[in-house]
Amino acid sequence: MENISEVKKIIKESNNIVFFGGAGVSTASGVPDFRSATGLYNRNNDSDYSPEYMLSHEFFTNHPDKFMDYVKENLMIEGIRPNDCHKALVKLENIGKLKAVITQNIDSLHQEAGSKNVIELHGNLRDYYCLDCGKKFDLDYVKSFNRAAKCDVCRGLVRPDIVLYGESLNSDNLSYAVKLISETDVLIVGGTSLVVYPAAGLIDFYRGNKLIVINMDPTPKDKSADFLLQGDISKIMKELVEGV
Ligand SMILES: [Zn+2]
């Protein structure tokens, strides 16, 4: 693919790259994609509710136990490891080329791989807090409960620090992401179908002429991409950083 060598050259020449990633970055590690054909949305569930509803603010408020059952069963996936895409991004950050990873994923795989500047638009499953007093908890604390965890100070309900359907994104995260994207020289967008707003609208803030889109399937932003690389993101990212 001739685009690969052109993009490699761009990466070699730039010290101001931002990576914006979606579910496809994690599927290569075995995390189910919400929207792909085999993802959560198309899985048969025992419950009468849609996955989208089970991950909504409303469902959490009304059925905290069922909500946590669902999160533990479907989102806390044991044994997942960072893949070559995560590793490639660590390399680019370590050699001073990559400014930040902006991700829609909540699985902490970027941090596990060693990335430092990671903006988690949809939150993460490492951090938890009490709805009533705000006390913070970690995953081990939450896992020690059979169902929804309760605060050890005030007995309030403890929730994961993820953005549920019906909730807005953290505004500090969002404005930091906008700043990074609007100031970056090279924007690599990977593993996202670019259909979920507001996250998808973020790339409209990019003002440069080196927008690189990497995806398995066509996206609505393919036409505005300066370089389009179609295929497995872990393979492509690995190839892109070889020798840089
Ligand atoms: Zn509390």
Automatic annotation (TrEMBL):
The keyword Translocase does not apply. One of its GO terms (molecular function) is histone deacetylase activity, NAD-dependent. It catalyses: N(6)-acetyl-L-lysyl-[protein] + NAD(+) + H2O = 2''-O-acetyl-ADP-D-ribose + nicotinamide + L-lysyl-[protein]. Its cofactor is Zn(2+). Zn(2+) binds at C130, C133, C151, C154. It is found in: Cytoplasm. InterPro entries: DHS-like_NAD/FAD-binding_dom, NAD-dep_sirtuin_deacylases, Sirtuin, Sirtuin_cat_small_dom_sf, Sirtuin_class_U, Ssirtuin_cat_dom. The active site is at H122. It comes from the Bacteria. Its EC number is 2.3.1.286. This is NAD-dependent protein deacetylase. It comes from Anaerococcus porci.
